[in-house]
Amino acid sequence: MGRGLGLLLLWQALGLLAAPARAEAAEEVRVEVLHVPEQCSTRSKKGDLLNAHYDGYLASDGSRFYCSRTQNEGHPKWFVLGVGQVIKGLDIAMMNMCPGEKRKVTIPPSLAYGQQGYAQGKIPPNATLIFEIELYAVNKGPRSVEAFNQIDKDSDKKLSQLEISQYLKEEFARDGKKRHPSVHDEILADIFKKNDHDGDGFISAKEYNVYQHDEL
User: Fold this and answer.
1) How far apart are CA 126 and CA 2, in angstroms?
2) Which one of 13, 112, 113, 162 is at 20 to 30 Å from 56 when CA atoms are compared?
3) How, if at all, do strands 158-159 and 203-204 pair?
4) What are the angstrom distances between the C-alpha of 123 and each of 58, 90, 173?
5) Of the candidates 209, 147, 180, which has an alpha carbon nearest to the alpha carbon of residue 7?
6) Which residues pair with 54 in a beta bridge?
7) CA geometry: angle at 202 spanning 197 and 206, to 5°?
8) 182 in helix, strand or coil?
């Protein structure tokens, strides 16, 4: 995993890159299953951490506006499903997928970029989008009760800088890539800047928890 992807995963895992919420709509996502592996012991659900490649096309002319294989040194993208880190239509389209499954999905404008479009991504207003998706991995989401308790070493229902620092060191060690010490400090500072809402030097269970159904 390259440095860029590693940082992206850690930032996404702590909810720092969530996209703006979008309004629900009556239109639906159309899903065409292209391939399902023979063995499927795990299916994706809200809150899972997914690893996938996907290409995006404009339905109007078939032109490709996005290819994950051309970013992050070709590594698949990591994101948490169902919390707004991707457009609403992809959150819907990638539910109940198996690792190794491939899908072609059609997403209406109301579940993509709507009337405003996305000029930076070369997506015009009111564009219907088509994505070809290949899912590689389904992991337990990082904002679960279990994940919080794993970081919360002293079980006091709040995360200290020392606890999160240790968590980051363990994640770096598991990744196996050498990083400058400043990378650790940068991520730690950013985590507290964006999650310690009351400024008390701790991230409480409430501040950490992005899933309303989780109880801590």
Assistant:
1) 35
2) 13
3) antiparallel
4) 8, 15, 39
5) 180
6) 133
7) 60
8) helix
Rounded-to-integer distance, Cα 132 and Cα 32, Å = 10
Check residue 199 and give left, alpha or beta (phi > 0: left; psi -120 to 50: alpha): left
Q: How far apart are CA 6 and CA 172, in angstroms?
A: 9
Q: Which of 135, 105, 156 is nearest to 42 (CA)?
A: 135
Q: What is the pTM of this model?
A: 0.61
Task: Give 204-212 contacts, CB < 8 A, sequence gap 24+.
Answer: 204/157, 204/158, 204/159, 205/148, 205/157, 205/158, 208/143, 208/148, 208/159, 209/143, 209/148, 210/15, 210/18, 210/83, 210/143, 211/46, 211/47, 211/83, 211/141, 211/143, 211/144
DSSP class of residue 74 equals: G
CA dihedral 47, 65, 99, 13 (to 10 degrees): -30
Q: Which residues 6+ apart lie within 8 Å of 186 measured at CB? A: none
CA atoms of 95 and 81, how far apart (whole Å): 8
- What value, to the nearest 5°, has the Cα angle with vertex 92 and ends 6 and 7? 10
Cβ proximity of 209 and 138 under 8 Å? no
**pLDDT at residue 175, as a whole number:** 63
Label the pairing between strands 49-58 and 129-139.
antiparallel
Which residue from 138, 210, 195 is spatially nearest to 164, judged by alpha carbons? 195
Please determine, for residue 151, whether its predicted confidence score (pLDDT) is greater than 90: no
